[in-house]
Amino acid sequence: MKNPFNEGSQAFMPFYLRIMIGASLWFISYAVISFLGLWIASSITGTSLATFSLGNFENKGPAFAAGLKIIQLFSDLGLFVVPALILPFIIFQHNAVAFMGMKKRTSFAVFILAICLALGIQPLVTVSAYFNEHLVLPHFLSGMEQQMQAMEKKNEGLMKSFLQMHGIWDFIINTVIIAILPAVAEELFFRGFLQKALQIGLKRSHLAVIATAFIFSFIHLEFYGFLPRFLLGLLLGYAYLWSGDIKVPILIHFTNNFMDLCLSYYSGSVETGSGVQNSFGIMQILFSIVSLFVLAYLVYIFKIKLKQQDSMIPYEGN
Q1: Looking at the 3D structure of the chain, how many domains does it have?
Q2: What pLDDT score does 179 carry?
């Protein structure tokens, strides 16, 4: 199988130069589009630019919350969507649609199983979140731990502003901003571009999946949600590796986000997904073990269905 690093009119260009150009375009895309979103949010809501600062996100009114959602929209576009669409061409001289497998036909049964996988991993995510939240760093890292706790508090304030819903229209808007947009944007970039690029560069598919899941979780800058997000990233990565269809991890990601949003809407709570119970009893542990076997069975059926339709991801690097 040909290596796309050596294909196209950019074959003469050193790899490090292509990476530098891609990184520069990524930074420019994020800076320009994010600033545009900030300006639009300020203009539409009548909120000053200074108000949208990294401070207290809570109790600043519906206009401020609406502005945050506009900023989030443009940030995702600039940080994830635009780079994911242009970097495959800049670095690999390949169209993003073909590079990510956007047009690949996947059976309806596989998509149903993808939704089941998103549901099946939830108990494991809950258990990992519990242990992650109760992780205590060594004493010499207490300063770092305090900084992470402060950052976590800011993130919780931001999510509370996002999750304030007073009716069905707020729920629909949040479905777009919190469930659909992150699922599409992040999967296009992390699985569609980054994981694929690492597969090609490292020539190790499993290592690419693990590395991408780590970066995916780390870039959210939420230490107390790192482990559950890392596990979700592994599921998303392998779903893409096995299917070769970027729509599959997008659907899993959307399902995960949409479940959290529905829970918040119907419970009337604005707590973030990191808030888990303070203790685990024997029943919770048994349920988690059973759900792990259920998840393993779902993965087995998922791979069988994919094998039946002879799905293969291009450029696995093996």
Answers
A1: 1
A2: 93
